[in-house]
Design goal:
The complex is a heterodimer of chains A (311) and B (272). With 311 residues, chain A is mainly alpha-helical. Chain A has helices spanning 2-49, 52-55, 69-100, 103-116, 121-147, 165-189, 193-201, 206-235, 238-243, 261-268, 275-310, and strands at residues 59-60, 65-66. With 272 residues, chain B is of the alpha/beta class. Chain B has a 7-stranded mixed sheet, with helices on both faces. In chain B, strands 3-2-5-6 form a 4-stranded antiparallel sheet, covered by helices on one side. In chain B, strand 10 (236-241) and strand 11 (244-250) form a beta hairpin. Classes of the chains: A mainly alpha (311), B alpha/beta (272). Chains A and B meet through helix 7 and helix 8 of A and helix 3, helix 4 and helix 7 of B. The structure holds adenosine-5'-triphosphate and magnesium ion. Residues 64-65, 193, 223 of chain B line the site of magnesium ion.
Chain lengths: 311, 272
């Protein structure tokens, strides 16, 4: 009897191993399969345009000319700017919640911040059109350009239409804020009490404790949260498409309309009739995939390096 | 059950001559402490002479850590706590309005049961206190780091790896690093809460020797469950039981002829 049950256990063990291994394998396989399909679909565009698909700045469907540089630029710039805007705020919220908020306030505020992540992208887009754009056009952009006198600098020059790289970045910043802040809050709260007490017992003020013991201890986790936010921002489509202006032009000004890889796919895929147009959109998808993977890899490397330094 | 106030030995009332005037004497007067509704300390009155080693012993949960952490106000971090009575450092109420808690904690170093170095270099750990307390120049910092590590009997072991992470040291070394880190603030008092309970006998012995060296310079208060350790390192011992101070006396008298029955029961191992 004993041996039967042991054999039963070992065969159950084997099945368990086979099934979990299969599950684990299916994920890289799926990833590889999707990537393969995208690259196969994109191949005619890469073959025809070569490197100029990445460097060319003319996207003319009628003329059959496809250069995705404005979209690549727009994707990267809007996401990075969103990160720059969102990170300080998200860290502020996280530090407030983990270190300063009275317990009764902690849950409700954390819940509200998390709720930001539950708002559908298209609702953000609508809000952006009806609330954010007018504010940007009538208040923020004139303030930056005229009151602060930044209008002559390349970043803030040109007419204030509203629809712009800036608008897309602001909406992205709001959208990724809950991700960054949730991760940061978690890791800050996970900093051992012993670390806090070590700093305080040495005569650190509360602020010094946060700066020197809490944040550094949580640093790699915080960076992980920021990267997570960047990943979200790069691929975000709907709200950005509604606000960025969708113009395939390279412009240094944040007031000017732009385009992103995700937006151009969403806008043009339904109407793509020629082989090369479809392939060019597929190629945009491929580039987005590669950029996202690269960002994630750089992020992981950074987190790993920080974690190693922390040791 | 009423517990009589602890009887103080003569040594309590007339501190020996060489401790008079020295900085680092601690005195508790009817000090009580509550966690929420739960009273953890009941009217503790106790004198800790400067430049001596005082051991706190007593069964688990009797309030040793609570009292220790009241001295440098670490308990104030826990929400919903309160106290009555006073603890004085050199005659000054540690909870008084004129007492700056940051300065208080610079004057009173603390070492915890579980060593807790920052995940930084050995040097940065020791330099932390002087840095936040305004020691700017590189030379001063270097000197403070070296002398603190020497006082913690760690210099020879780490002098070639000051830039390495503190977390790469052995447990005993990390605990001595924490002592060095506390010493770098030049405290008058060093509080240690079961500093050796997670260390092997050799590492423990090193720390005990170190305390012996240090007591000519600063006041040391150590919580320990190890009665042999209390007997080895301390000049005086205080026995706590259920939130009350039962007896405090010179260690030798306490261990050879305790005056209280419960003390005797505890040190002879009949309970606790
Ligand atoms: N943060 C806290 N909140 C509520 N009660 C606490 C807290 N810390 C300690 N206590 C309670 O106060 C009493 C005294 O605890 P304390 O830690 O001072 O005992 P101790 O003598 O140090 O014990 P040990 O030898 O186990 O370390 C215990 O009953 C404990 O449960
Ligand atoms: Mg304790």
């Amino acid at each position: 009897m004993g041996s039967t049950s042991i054999e039963g256990a070992s065969s159950a063990d084997r099945w368990y191993r086979i099934i979990t291994t299969a599950c684990a394998l299916s994920i890289p396989l799926l990833l590889g399969f999707i990537a393969l399909q995208v690259f196969v679909g994109a191949w005619p565009a890469f073959e025809k345009f070569g490197l100029s698909f990445l460097t060319g700045s003319t996207w003319d469907v009628g003329a059959g000319e496809f250069g995705a540089a404005p979209m690549i630029y727009g994707t990267v710039v809007s996401s990075v700017l969103a990160l720059v805007l969102a990170t300080p705020l998200a860290l502020g919220v996280a530090i407030f919640l983990s270190e300063f908020a009275p317990p009764w306030l902690r849950q409700p505020v954390a819940f509200l911040v998390d709720l930001l992540a539950a708002i559908p992208s298209v609702v953000y887009g609508l809000w952006g059109i009806f609330v954010l754009l007018p504010v940007l056009r009538e208040d923020v952009m004139p303030f930056l350009a005229t009151t602060l006198g930044l209008g002559n600098t390349p970043l803030f020059s040109g007419p204030a239409y509203g629809n712009s790289m800036l608008a897309a970045s602001v909406i992205l910043a709001i959208m990724i804020l809950p991700y960054i802040s949730a991760v940061a809050r978690e890791v800050l709260m996970a900093v051992p009490r012993a670390q806090r007490e070590a700093a305080l017992a040495l005569g650190a003020t509360r602020w010094e404790m946060i700066r020197d013991a809490v944040v550094p201890y949580a640093r790699s986790g915080i960076i992980g949260g920021i990267i997570l936010g960047l990943g979200r921002a790069l691929g975000e489509t709907m709200a950005v498409t509604m606000l960025i202006g969708n113009r395939a032009e390279l412009s240094a000004s944040l007031f000017a309309p732009g385009y992103t890889l995700a937006s151009v796919i969403a806008n043009e895929f339904a109407e793509a009739s020629t082989e090369f147009h479809t392939a060019a959109l597929m190629a945009c998808g491929a580039v987005l995939l590669v950029v996202t993977l690269m960002v994630n890899m750089i992020a992981r490397w950074l987190v790993g390096r920080v974690a190693r330094e922390g040791r | 059950m009423t517990v009589p106030a602890p009887r103080l030995s003569t040594a309590d009332r007339t501190p020996s001559q060489d401790t008079v005037g020295a900085l680092g004497s601690i005195e508790a007067a009817d000090y009580s402490f509550w966690y929420g509704a739960k009273q953890a300390l009941h009217q503790v009155s106790l004198q800790i002479p400067a430049r001596s080693v005082t051991a706190f012993i007593g069964p688990s949960g009797c309030g040793k850590s609570t009292f220790l952490r009241s001295i440098n106000r670490m308990n104030a971090l826990i929400p919903d706590t309160r106290h009555e009575g006073a603890i004085r450092l050199d005659g000054e109420d540690v909870n008084g309005t004129s007492m700056d808690v940051v300065q208080l904690r610079q004057r009173i170093g603390m070492v915890f049961q579980r060593w807790n170095p920052f995940p930084r270099s050995v040097y940065d750990n020791v330099a932390y206190g002087p840095r936040i307390n305004g020691t700017g120049s590189r030379q001063e910092l270097d000197a403070a780091v070296e002398s603190s590590l020497r006082r913690a009997a760690l210099w020879d072991e780490v002098k070639d790896r000051l830039r390495d992470s503190a977390l790469g040291l052995s447990g005993g070394q990390q605990q001595r690093l924490c002592i060095a880190r506390a010493l770098a603030n030049q405290p008058e008092v060093l509080l240690l809460d079961e500093p050796c309970s997670a260390l092997d006998p050799i590492a423990t012995q090193k720390i005990e020797e170190l305390l012996y060296e240090l007591k000519s310079e600063i006041t040391i208060v150590i919580v320990t469950h190890n009665l042999q350790q209390a007997a080895r390192v301390s000049d005086r011992t205080a026995f706590f039981y259920m939130g009350r101070l039962i007896e405090v006396d010179a260690t030798q008298s306490m261990f050879t002829s305790p005056r209280e029955e419960r003390t005797e029961a505890y040190i002879t191992g009949r309970f606790g």
